[in-house]
Amino acid sequence: MKKYLSPGLCFAFLTALVSGAESEVVFHSDFENDTWFKDWGLDAAARNTQIVAKDPDNKFTAHRGKALRIKIAEGSNYGTSLAYRFKKQTGSEPEEIYFRYYLRLGNDWDPKAGGKLPGFGGTYGRAGWGGRPVSGDDGWSARGLFLTRKDGKTPVGFYCYHADMKGKYGSHWRWDIEDRGLLENNRWYCIEQYAKMNTPGKNDGILRAWIDGKPAFEKSDVRMRDTDKLKIELIWFNLYHGGSKAAEKNHHIYLDEVVISRKPIGMVKVRK
Questions:
Q1: d(CA 163, CA 127)
Q2: Which of 48, 88, 108, 216 could be disulfide-bonded to 211 (CB atoms 3.0-4.6 Å)?
Q3: How would CATH label the architecture of 7-261?
Q4: What separation in angstroms does the CA of 202 have from each of 21, 37, 49, 139?
C-alpha cells in the first residue's frame, strides 16, 4: 500500500500542486467563496447547500475557514448531488484515482435509515444506481455508505454496484479495519478513497479507504466491468437518506477541502 506524506509536508506538497508546479492534482475545492459551484461546472449552487463559517445551533467549528453545509430536511431523502465528470473536465476518464474530503456530521445527525455518501461512479446513465443492477458492460458505482447510528457512532463504508452483486441493489462493504469507520458527531474526519478498475472480466479491481490517514478498508477482488469501455466516469458527491425511508427530522452534514489526485493525498491538520 502506498504511504502518505506527513501532514505538514502533504499540505506544502498540495499547495505546490494546486498552484501549478506539478500536475498530479486534478481538482481542488475548499468552498471559501460563494461561487464555489463554478469549479464544479455548475451555473448555480447545488440544492440544499450553503457556505458557512459559523453554525452555532449545530455546534459547528470550521476546519479551515468556510465549509459546505448540506441539509437533509425532515420528510425528505435528498441532500445533494455534485459530480466531477472527468471527461468533461479533463478530456479523458481514468483507470485509477484518489480523492479526499473532510467530513463533519452535525450535532443533529441521527439517521433512522442508511444512505449515501461521496464515492466513485461509472453509471453512464444506464446502470449502477437506484436498483439498476449491472451486467459488466453497462455501468458500476462505489458510492460511500452510512448506516444507522449505534452507540453514538455512524458506521460508514462503500455501497457498490458491481458485476458480481446479488439481487437488485448494491453490496454494503463497511470500513471495518480497527473500527475506524465508526464516526462521531461534531468532529472533522479526513476521508480518502481510492479506486482502480479491474482488468475486464477479472476480479482484480481495488477499493481502498483511509480515515485520518490510517487504513480503514481494502478490497482487491472487485469486478466492476467486463469491458474496457467502462472507466471511472465521475467522483460522485451524493448525499441521500435511504433507500425509501425519509428523514424524521432535519439533518446537517459539512464538507470541506475536496481534492482529486492521481497520487495519494493525505491529511491537513484536523481540528476537532
A1: 11
A2: 216
A3: Sandwich (2.60)
A4: 37, 38, 40, 16
Q: In 2-71, which ranges are continuous DSSP H helix?
A: 7-18
Instruction: List the chain domain ranges.
Output: 7-261
pLDDT tens digit string along 154-186? 999 999 999 999 989 999 999 999 999 999 999
pLDDT per position as a tens digit, 39-57 = 998 999 999 999 999 999 8
Q: What is the dihedral of CA 177, 178, 183, 188, to 10 degrees?
A: -90
Q: Report the candidate in 231, 48, 197 with the shortest Cα–Cα distance to residue 123.
A: 231
The separation between CA 101 and the C-alpha centre of its own chain, rounded to angstroms, equals 7
| Distance, CA of 12 to CA of 94 (rounded, Å) | 25
Question: For the CA atoms of 244, 248, 249, 252, what is the dihedral angle to 10 degrees?
Answer: -40
User: Residue 89, class by beta-carbon neighbours within 10 Å (0-12 exposed, 13-18 middle, 19+ buried)?
Assistant: middle
Provide the 3-class DSSP secondary structure of residue 17: helix
